[in-house]
Amino acid sequence: MSISPRTARTSRYIGVAFASAALVFGAAGNAMACSIKDFSAVAECDGDKGVIRVTDVDSLGVKAEVTVYLENNGADLRQVGSRTIENSTAEGVTVTFEEDWEPNAEYRIHVEAGDYVNEDITPNLVAPAAACKAEAVTPPVASESPEKPAENKDEGEPSKTKTSPTPSASEGTTPVGSNDNNAPSPEGDSNLAETGGDSNTGTIAGAAAALVALGAGAVYYSMRRRGASTR
Asked: Is pTM beyond 0.70 here?
């Protein structure tokens, strides 16, 4: 049975279409397959401690084993640790390695993921140039307490500068500048005594009268002698 030219052309078109579809699906499958490009690493601080975090964004969720090594002059100095990533998503799944890294330290990160990946993340991870520091804690502001009154150091001790109260006139104190002789005499003294006189006033008055009489007599006698001598 012979195939007509028209049928042959149709079959050829169909074959080309299938081949193109196979190429497209193959490329899409390769693009979605797990690769080392799905993994990334970073060294950062968690408080005052250093950590290394590795993130897997493989949308197929291929199980991966991640191992971190500290490098020294291109050779592994020590193994920091190993973590397993399962059920990764396109949003990313992260594993953390506690590593108090030194500034500018270099780390090699190796990834094994099924039959897809068995290689290192390139380039190697280099830690930041500044070490981690503890976060400064601000002390709480102390509330202001009310000021205490100043303590009186002399409290309970007699004052050394106390002045005696000024006595009132009713207490019998003689005012300043007054004459003591003007103080009132006790009851029974005469009014004359209160004005400065005493009990010898009568004697003094009699002696004065005698002196006056004697003086008058002397004057009279002198005048008579003078009259007699003039005759």
From this structure: no
